[in-house]
Amino acid sequence: MEYRRLGRSGLRVSALSLGSWVTFGSQLGVGLAKSCLAAARAGGVNFFDNAEQYAGGESERIMGRALAELGWPRHSYVVSTKFFWGIYEGVNTQDTLNRKYLLQAIDGSLERLGLDFVDLMFCHRSDPATPIEETVWAMHDIVSSGKATYWGTSEWPADDLRAAFEIAERHHLRKPVMEQSQYNLLERRRVEVEYARLYEDWGLGLTTYSPLAWGILTGKYVDGVPEGSRATVPGFEWLRDRLVAPETNARVPALLAVAGELGCTPAQLAIAWCAANPHVSTVITGASRVEQVEENLRALDILPLLTPEVMARLDAAYA
Questions:
Q1: Number of other CB atoms surrounding residue 96 within 10 Å
Q2: Mapping DSSP to helix (H, G, I), strand (E, B) and coil, where does residue 16 land?
């Protein structure tokens, strides 16, 4: 496993990590989640991603119980959570980044995870209704309290991110360290274009998600939605039209052809392509079986095979 610095921070995270979105609570109980976590750690993974809203808080409970049963030393792994959508109905508990919500949300996540602190804490989306200065101060105070080690954002527009950096700089507050964006061969603009100046100007680190574009890049949706796939999970019906879109799946054969020539699976190639970006600190992978965890980890073996010629072929197909 390769370990990379998270932006300009001193924290090092595994180039591949394991996330719980869709799987923990929706497809996996504690037993299978524990097995997947153990398989990931055996492969060198040290970062495990979660969020308050995943499965309405159940994802955090499952990960917390699994970690407790595994009994790993707390210093040996990195855990994240994210806040914005909330899990309780109320005017100050949903779709917000106001101070009241954030200071209470961190306590709820720590209780569900069974931890004294999380390593990474994300604002899961930006909130145009709350002043960015209020959010920055709240995140700074949570980190200062010891309940989180670093804070960052997820899918924030570059202008909002730059405003957060400048507010933190002006008031000598803790700056956002990382951003969690979708990044794959089909979704590239934010990471490669919109944030281009932020890596050098502010040292932004990336924990990217959905390297397989919800499974599209594996090729399994070319002929429709197979039974047991992500699009059949209750609550993810919104994905169905996107997964079977003809214009999207028409670009998949190019990836399948390159993967065949390199002797790897399309999933391994797609993950390796994401990890090849020098601005990406870690690629968050998902799995509903131990075998998937192990297959995804072998994507690191493909990295040396991504020559300029191979990358140019993929760029031509997915520009």
A1: 21
A2: strand
- Which two three-digit tokens encode residue 299? 């994507």
Encode pLDDT of 226-261 as tens digits.
676 666 666 666 676 777 677 777 788 889 999 999
pTM tops 0.90, yes or no = yes
Query: How far apart (Å, rounded) are the C-alpha atoms in residues 315 and 180?
Result: 22
**Phi, psi of 27, rounded to the nearest 5 degrees:** -120, -25
| Residues 118 and 110 sit within 8 Å (Cβ to Cβ) | yes
Report residue 155 as tokens: 């899918």
Question: Quick check: helix, strand or coil at residue 300?
Answer: helix
Mean pLDDT, the chain, whole residue set: 94
CA gap 109, 111 in Å, rounded: 5
Report the run of H or E that residue 30 belongs to, with start and end: helix 30-42
Beta bridge partners of 81: 121
Around 222, how many Cα atoms within 13 Å sit in the side-chain half-sphere? 11
Quote the strand ranges of the chain, DSSP E: 3-5, 12-14, 16-19, 47-49, 78-83, 118-123, 148-154, 178-180, 205-208, 280-285
Domain ranges of the chain: 3-318
Q: Which residues are part of the catalytic machinery?
A: 54
Place of tokens 């924290």: 11
Architecture of the domain defined by 3-318 = Alpha-Beta Barrel (3.20)
CA 139 to each of CA 149, 175, 274: distance values in angstroms, whole numbers, following the listed order: 10, 9, 29
